[in-house]
Design brief:
heterodimer; A: 196 residues; alpha/beta; Rossmann fold; eight-stranded mixed β-sheet; 31% helix; B: 338 residues; mainly beta; Porin; eleven-stranded antiparallel barrel; two-stranded antiparallel ribbon
Chain lengths: 196, 338
Amino acid sequence: MAAPRKPNLQARRPRCLSGLFGLACVITLFFGWVPTPCAAQTGTQHEYELKAGVLFHIIEYVQWPTTSLSNNPTAIQIGLLGEIPFADALEVLNGKTIQGRELVVKHVSEAQAADRCQVLFIGASEKTRISEIVAKVKDHPVLTVSEVEGFAEQGGMVNLIAGPNRIIMEINREVAGKARLGISSQLLKLAKVFPR
Amino acid sequence: MASILGFSHARAELAPAPSGKPQDLTGLSLEELLDEEVTPINVLGSHTHLKGGFMVGYRYMYMNMGHNQDGTHDVSEQQVLARYPVVHTSMDMEMHMAELMYAPADWATVMAMVPYGVNTMHHLTATGETPTAHSSGVGDLSFMGLFNVLGTPGQTGHHLVLNAGFTAPTGAIDAKSAGKQLEYNMQLGSGTWDLLPGITYLGDSELFSWGAQALGTVRLGMNDRDYRLGDRYRLSAWTQLKVTDWFGPSVRLDWHAWSKVHGADPAMDPNRNPAFDATKQYGERLDFVMGLNFYVPKGVLKGNRFSLEGGLPVYQNLGGPTIGVDWLITAAWSYSFR
C-alpha cells in the first residue's frame, strides 16, 4: 500500500468553461495548420479512363466484315458523337494499334457521318435521340457504344454504364449479329447479354 | 469518419493522375478494368462495402479520467470525502477492439466487434490509503447490420445508412478486486442483451467527407446481479479533409448521454462509494476530437488504413460526485479486401 496522502482540497473551475476554451484553441490550431488541399481530380474522369480501357479491349474481341475495313484497311476509326465529358480520356486510344490496325479517334457531328467509322461512341447528351441514331447506322457494320441506361435494349450494341462503383458492360449480340459484327464469346462472358 | 461507425473501408483502385491528364488504362486486362472502382477510394474512405468486401481491423482506445465532478462543476477529493469514505482519484480505461466486416450485398454490410477492456481505478480513503483496483477481460460482443437506404457505397454524394445491431452479454459483471465487487464503471459488460439502433448520414465530395450519426444502446431486461445499466445515446458529427489521396485530418464532435442504473447490485453499498450508487450513474458529455487519417492507395500495403485521434471533453454534466474524463485517444488500423 502506498503512503497515505492528503486529499486534493481545491475544486477547479466549471468544466464547461475550460472545455470551451480548449475547443477554441484546438479549432484555431487545426484550421491554422491544415495545408492547402491539392487540386481535385474528378471521379468522372476516372470513369472515362476506365471506359476507354474497356473500349480498347472490346475492339480486340470484335470482328468486322472485311468490306467495312476496305476504305482504310490499316485503321479502325472511332467516332465520338455528342457531348462527352472527358472525351480526352477516350482520345488516349488515338494511335494505338489492335491486330495491326491503328485506332483513329475523331469527333463526328452526325450519325450519318459515322458510317465510315467502325466504332461509334454515342455520348449521354444524345439520350433522347438514341433510337434515331441507331436507326441511321443499323445497315452498316458499325459497333455502336453508349453510356445511356437501356441502350442495349433499344437497339444499341454495347452499353458501358457506371453501376455500383464499377463499369457494367451490356451487349446486344442480336443487333451486332445483324450488323455482321462477330463478338467473341470471351467478351460475352464478361457482359450482361441481351436479349436474355 | 470511420471510427464513429466502428469501421473503415478501402478497396483496390487506381489513383487518378495527379496532373489532370487522363491515364492510359489499356494496359490493364478487361477483367481488371471491370473490377476497378469508378470512384477511387482515397483517404476519405467509404463507410459501407460493396458485395463481397471484407474488412478486418483493430482499434485501441484510451480514456484518462483524473478529476471528480458533480453536475458541471469540479469537486475536490476533500469535498467527496466529506460525504463518502472513499474517493476516486483517477481512472484509466483501455479498450482493445477487434473488428470484422463483410458485405453480402451492395446494400448491406454486417459487422462483428470483440472488445477487450482493461480498467484501472485509483482510490483515496478517508484514512489516507490509496488502493488501486483492476479489471480486465472480454467485454460484450456486438453485431451490427448496416443497410444503405440512400446512395451507393463507393460513389460520392449523399448516403443514408440504417444501423441495426445488438450486443451479447459476454462481458463480466462480477469483476472483483481483493475479493470485493467493483463499481459499475469497472465492470466489463452490461449483463444484458442490448439493442443498437441507429441512423447515419454520410456525404462526400472530392475534397471532403462529412457525416452525422445517431446511435442508441437500449438495454433489455435485468442482469444476473439485479440491475440494468441505463440506456445510452450518442450523436456525432464529423468532417474530414482530403489533403492527398493518402492523408487527411479530421474533426469530430461526439455527444454521449446515459441514464441511471435501474435496480442495484446488492453487493454495492451506495453509502460507501458514489460509484456504487445506482441513482448517480447518469450523465452526458460532449467531446471534441481531432484525427489524422492515413490510407495506402497502392503498393504491397494497399488497402491498409491507419488513424490516430485525440480529444477532450468540452462539456460534461455528470451525476455525482463521480470521476470525469480529461482526455482520450484512439488508434486504429484496418485492412479491406475482397
